[in-house]
Amino acid sequence: MESSSYPALEALGEFIAAHAPLCVLSGAGVSTDSGIPDYRDAQGEWKRPAPMTHQAFMGSHAARQRYWARALVGFRALGEALPGPAHLALAALERHGLVNGVITQNVDRLHQAAGSRRVIDLHGRADEVRCMHCDVRMPRAAWHARLAELNPAWAMLDAAIAPDGDAYLEGDFSTFEVPHCPRCGIGVIKPDVVYFGDIVPKARVVDAMALLDESRGLWVVGSSLMVFSGFRFARKASADGLPIACLNLGRTRADDLYTLKVEAPLGESLGALAERLGSFVARR
Fold this sequence. Notes:
Blueprint: H1 5-19, E1 22-26, H2 54-59, H3 61-80, H4 85-95, E2 99-104, H5 110-114, E3 119-121, E4 124-131, E5 137-139, H6 140-150, H7 152-155, E6 189-193, H8 202-213, E7 217-221, H9 228-239, E8 244-247, E9 260-262, H10 266-283
Parallel strand pairs: 1-2, 1-7, 2-3, 7-8, 8-9
Antiparallel strand pairs: 4-5, 4-6
Helix pairs in contact: 1-10, 3-6, 4-10
C-alpha cells in the first residue's frame, strides 16, 4: 500500500468509528480479488461489451443459446470463487458492530460465504435459476449439469472469464440446446438475477431502504454507482442528511455527495481497517 494512502485510511477509520453502525453498499470491486472481473474502468465506462439485458434474454432464443453456452464455460470461475480480503474484512466489521449490514450489487454470494449475516442481494443470486413461467427455482449447478449433458462438446471448451459467470466465447451457437423448464415444460429458465433493463423487486428495495434507515451512515465500497439501482441509496442518504463515505478506485456517479472519498486498493485497505478497528472495539 502506498504511504500516501495512509492519511486517507486514517480518516476513513475515524469516519467508521464516528458514524457506526454503517450500511455498506458494495459493488464489483469487492470481488475482483476473488478472480471475478468487473465491468467498468476508473472513469465508470464499460471495459467490455454491455451485459445481457432482460429484454434480449426473454425475447430471443438465439440470445439464450449464446448466453448459456458462454455461461457453461464461464460460470466455473464464479461457482468456485472464494471470499477475498474485502469480503472477510466487511464480515469482521459487522461482528465488531461497526457495520449494520450490506446491500450488495454483486450476485456471487461471497459476502455470505465470508460470514456476513445481514446481506441484501439487490440484484439477486447467480447460484440459482428460476422458471419465468411457473417460478420454480433450482440450483444453477443442476441446470448446468443438464446443459452439459445435452451439449457435451461445449462443456469441454475453455475461454477467458468475463464478469458474472460469462466467458469470452464466440462462434455459431445455433446448435446449442437449451431445454424448457423441467417442471412445467414450457417456461424459460433464467438466472435468478436482475439483468440490465429489469426491475429490482419492490420488497427487496424496501428491505434495503430499511437497512439504510437503521444505520447512522452509508459506506460505498467498490462501486461506481453508474446504475440507478445502487445510486438511489446514495441519493436517499444524502437527502436524509446521513454522512456518506466511499472506498473505490475511480470516478463514481455520487462523487459530489460524499463526506469522504478514499481511492485505494480495496482488499488491502479493508483488511487494515478491520484489524485496526477490531482492536479499537476490543479496548472499549
